[in-house]
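Re: the 131-residue chain
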Amino acid sequence: MEKHRITNQRRVILEELQKLATHPTAADLYKIVRRQLPRISLGTIYRNLELLIRSGTIRKIDNGSKKARFDGDMSNHYHVRCHQCGRVDDLPGSPRIELSRKIQGHNGWDIAEHRIEFVGVCPDCRVNNGM
């Protein structure tokens, strides 16, 4: 992991991301950060997000869609993703440590972390689609 100086821009980006449970895209975060830093560019948001990812401070949720989402919560937790709009939410509860323990050592594997994602339709899309 790389270490980087925490600039004012990076601090604001990180603070705003950590306040959110919505897992914003870079464009979403740009709109939020501009309230405090009106002169910041979208390119600066992207560069700082990449630095924060490389330093292990935030996580990139790359779910195969065109728009990556970002997570300021580095604890082990699960996500649920809407396959219609791309919304990503945290699922409550602690990670299934038992699963990691069962897999640990299987065929020589040393498990460092795990991710589980559930996919479905979010409440907003259900309402908008009359479900």
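Helices lie at 8-19, 26-33, 42-54, 97-103, 123-128.
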